[in-house]
Amino acid sequence: MSKISIHWFRNDLRVQDNPSLQFAAQNGSVTPIFILDTVNNTEKEFKLGEAGAWWLHHSLHSLNKSLDNKINCFTGDPIKIIGELISNNQVESFSWNRCYSPWEIKRDTLIKSLLKEKNINVKTFNGTLLWEPWEILKDDNTPYRVFSPFYRKGCLKKHSGPRKVINLDDVICSERLDSSKDVDSLNLLPKNSWKDKFKKYWNVGEKAAMEKYIHFRNNGLNGYKEGRNFPSQENVSVLSPHLHFGEISPHQIWYNDKSNCPEKDVGHFHSELGWREFSYYLIYHFPFMCSENLNKRFDKFPWSANKDFLKAWQMGNTGYPIVDAGMRQLWETGYMHNRVRMIVASFLVKNLLIDWRIGLEWFNDCLCDADLANNTASWQWTAGSGADAAPYFRIFNPILQGKKFDPEGLYTKKFVPELKNFPAKHLFAPWEANDSVFKDAGIEYGKDYPKPIVSIEESRDIALKAYDQIKG
Ligand SMILES: Cc1cc2nc3c(=O)[nH]c(=O)nc-3n(C[C@H](O)[C@H](O)[C@H](O)COP(=O)(O)OP(=O)(O)OC[C@H]3O[C@@H](n4cnc5c(N)ncnc54)[C@H](O)[C@@H]3O)c2cc1C
Questions:
Q1: Of 316, 341, 304, 305, nearest to 453 (Cα)?
Q2: Residue 472 pLDDT more than 80?
Q3: Which of 272, 347, 366, 382 to mutate to test the pocket of ligand 1 (most atoms within 8 A of CB)?
Q4: Catalytic positions, please?
Q5: By the 8 A CB rule, do 101 and 284 touch?
Q6: What domains can you pick out in the chain, each with its CATH number?
Q7: What's the pLDDT tens digit per position in 132-176?
Q8: How many Å apart are CA 472 and CA 469, to the nearest integer?
Q9: Mean pLDDT in the chain?
Q10: pLDDT at 159 (0 to 100)
Q11: How close is the Cα of 240 to the center of ligand 1, in Å?
């Protein structure tokens, strides 16, 4: 039996800049494996959502192609599957790039010690983050809770730069193991309409990720700092699902030459990658925050359980056009622009008073980029319960936000097509328009497009009173 070097693919579905793959390939051929873990991730909020599963299916196919169709897939409990792999094969080395979700850290720590007990050369690497969370601490050795000093003092100033990008020549893979399955057998494709619909919007895989990044660098990065707030402009990279699944690494982006773009835009774009680092940092240091309020005061918050409100929000039928456009973009494409994510999240937690965890769960199921760290940190930030959170009284007003960030209504009308003939002047507060405006736009108000499910002013007052109850 010949010896094999195993690289375990997880959220690093790429060949280039893959430190663990490089390690496994150093002595010859690699045995690449992927395991769909159906056992260790027990919390329903963290489960692989349907949109993410769609992405994973296509990403694994793309990776498999780059690996000469030699990827070995498994489903079940990695602890058991890896145990069997090492019993049935002569394993020379076993390596992976680290993951940072609490449940993954627990599982991987156990697997590492099992492999060590069996005298297997086991190595783990950083393939996902620019800075390891345990490397960045305040002077008193405690973790940062505020983004700016974390990024500026902790990451940029105090520490040497992120590791350099690793360029790999062709990786040679060993023949597939008899015990393994192919990608299709993982049954990842959702049963609903996303299965076919998402194809219209996305090219998945390592090559597509790099092409998208280059397109963004050449076209969208110039003007990013301001333009990133306007959902109809092409100033954001839309790289989030590629980054989540590791089809491109933050290192590849960080070090790529951007000298043709203004420094303020490049700096701002890098700081958004910094927010991604901060999210991972937070869930590493405060793992409980994935399901509990970071700020314990919010444990007593009087959340509402109004199912009709929740349904209206999920389906994009709240009567607030910018909110509805965002929720429908999510349902249609598996993505939502960041500005609109903040608006719809604020609307759910502050105008509808629905618990941020319920919003997180919906996002987790519908976003192709659903990411435990970014999703958790961002929802808690919006709810006011997280680190460096938006002050509770900062309640996004969907009317003003719409007018300011989608002034001509291009984004809103694209995803709420029944309002396509509505004048921009009244678009974000249709109730202010008189009957003739509706008539000219061909809309029967309340039938073709819903009236608001809550009043912004009243719901804001109720939210502030609810906050008064816990802030003392
Ligand atoms: C309620 C809410 C939930 C969110 N859930 C997720 C999620 O599940 N997965 C996810 O990747 N992002 C999430 N975000 C953060 C952000 O909205 C997305 O990362 C961003 O919109 C992705 O679009 P982009 O790739 O074009 O971003 P760009 O502006 O091009 O930024 C480049 C990359 O930086 C990172 N980034 C940008 N903004 C943020 C941010 N505010 N926080 C953390 N990282 C950021 C992302 O990896 C992004 O791909 C959430 C934000 C909110 C308000």
A1: 316
A2: no
A3: 272
A4: 272, 275, 303, 338, 356, 379
A5: no
A6: 3-126 (3.40.50.620), 128-162+192-285 (1.25.40.80), 296-471 (1.10.579.10)
A7: 999 999 999 999 999 999 999 999 987 678 999 999 988 999 999
A8: 7
A9: 95
A10: 67
A11: 6
